[in-house]
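sry for the spam today, last one i promise. struct tokens for design, 229 residues
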């Protein structure tokens, strides 16, 4: 009888932990961090204003993201690969970002990032923050220099959504126990699919499409929404 009781209690505790489990998935640029990495790379290439203008239009959903990314990456051709070190040094985490990851992990939750940015910088951001999952683009480098091309399939809005679903499935979680946050138009599908979708300091189209919005640059405000939702 004692063994049966313990087994039942353990099963109930496991069920409770699973019910409380969450997966938080965030965009990187202008969400997890304050900057747009591609804009920083553009500045290094001497085309900062041109790249930033294209970024702004893409994030507002005014132009096709894939086309805009390829155009911006093309402007980076010839940069030495050491540019990644300098770019990472300029990155700053959004207020509350590291705290949000720490609090999530303390609860046993997982955190992932999906980005139209680049693994060459994103991987360092992920390591610093202690994030569990990462999906980003890769830049082609030959002879120590950027070619102006991408080295893998582009991370589109569809792939961001696929990552949310795939990571949730891996964890055995329904989408109702996921959280998605971002600022751009390419974040809308995952924001709408997640159990808790948050537009963070977002562009107008994203704000209109999201169930929840945060307009202050403090990612810990997301925890209030997650816990009450």
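last one done:
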């Amino acid at each position: 009888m004692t063994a049966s009781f313990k087994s039942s209690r353990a099963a109930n505790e496991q069920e409770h932990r699973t019910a409380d489990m969450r997966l938080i998935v965030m965009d990187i640029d202008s969400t997890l961090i304050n900057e747009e990495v591609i804009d920083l790379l553009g500045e290094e290439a001497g085309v900062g204003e041109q790249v930033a203008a294209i970024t702004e239009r893409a994030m507002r959903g005014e132009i096709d993201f894939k086309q805009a990314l390829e155009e911006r990456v093309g402007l980076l051709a010839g940069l030495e690969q050491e540019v990644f070190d300098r770019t990472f040094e300029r990155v700053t985490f959004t207020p509350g970002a590291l705290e949000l990851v720490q609090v999530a992990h303390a609860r046993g939750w997982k955190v992932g990032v999906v980005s139209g940015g680049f693994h060459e910088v994103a991987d360092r951001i992920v390591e610093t923050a202690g994030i569990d999952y990462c999906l980003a683009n890769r830049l082609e480098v030959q002879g120590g220099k950027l070619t102006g091309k991408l080295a893998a399939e582009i991370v589109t809005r569809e792939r961001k959504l696929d990552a949310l679903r795939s990571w949730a499935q891996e964890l055995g979680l329904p989408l109702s126990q996921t959280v998605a946050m971002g600022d751009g138009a390419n974040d809308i599908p995952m924001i709408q699919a997640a159990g808790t979708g948050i537009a963070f300091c977002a562009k107008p189209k994203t704000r209109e499409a999201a169930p929840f919005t945060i307009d202050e640059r403090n990612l810990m405000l997301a925890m209030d929404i997650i816990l009450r939702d």
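Residues 18-228 form a domain with the Rossmann fold fold (CATH 3.40.50.1000). ok im logging off now
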